[in-house]
Every structure is written in C-alpha cells, then in structure tokens.
Amino acid sequence: MAWTLLIIAGILEVGWAIGLKYTEGFTRVVPTLLTLGSMIASMSLLGVAAKTLPIGTAYGIWVGIGAVGAAVLGIVLFKEPATPARLAFLGMMIVAIVGLKATSGH
Q: Where does the sequence pass through the membrane (predicted)?
C-alpha cells in the first residue's frame, strides 16, 4: 500500500509542478487552489508512505517521479526542448527510480 501511495504522491507532485506554470505567479484563483491542493495531498501521501518505507528511498522516488513527469509534460505542453541529451538524462532518472525501488528491501 505504501508504494501505491508513494506513486500517487509522485503523480500529484507532477500536477503541482505543472500547476505552478498555470497559476501565473499565484494570480489566477482556480489554478492556484488546484496547485495548493495538489501540494498538500502530495506531501501528505509522501508522509504516510514514509511511515513504512525508508525516507531516503521514499523521498528519492517522490522527487524522481515529479522531476521526470514535470520534464516530460514540459516538453509536451510547453514545447520545451527534447534534446537527445535531455532525454538520456531523463532515462537515467527513471533507471535511478527503478533502482531505488529494487534495492529498498520493501
């Protein structure tokens, strides 16, 4: 269950990271409320998952999911560059996330 909560927390982190772009500096009410809600939910789920999982593993995977997801959505939604080097480093981050999970002992 902790792993499921952690993955959901990571997805919510992607949501609030992308949501920051839509808040336009927290000047738009609805995107700001959705972003803040996603932040609270994401960190709450991370906290619950960290009760069971090692904090280094949980936090590393949470940040990794958020970083990879935000970068991919940045490419898709905001036409950010998708250079071979950038894609390769995103691939390495995915390998690191999988490696943390595989070596967590949980």
A: 33-50, 57-78, 84-103
CA atoms of 24 and 31, how far apart (whole Å): 9
- Domain residue limits at 50: 2-102
- The 10 Å CB-count burial string (b at 16+, else e) for 42-78 is beebbebbbeebeeebbbbbbebbbbbbbbebbbeee
SS3 of residue 26 by DSSP: coil
- Rounded mean pLDDT of the chain? 96
pLDDT higher than threshold 80 for residue 106: no
Q: How many domains does the chain have?
A: 1
Spell out the residues 6+ positions from residue 77 whose beta carbon is closer than 8 angstroms to its own. Answer: 18
Q: Looking at the predicted structure, is the pLDDT value of residue 34 above 90?
A: yes
Find where tokens 């939604």 sit.
77
Q: What is the pTM for the complete model shown?
A: 0.91
Q: Distance between CA atoms of 106 and 83, rounded to whole angstroms?
A: 35
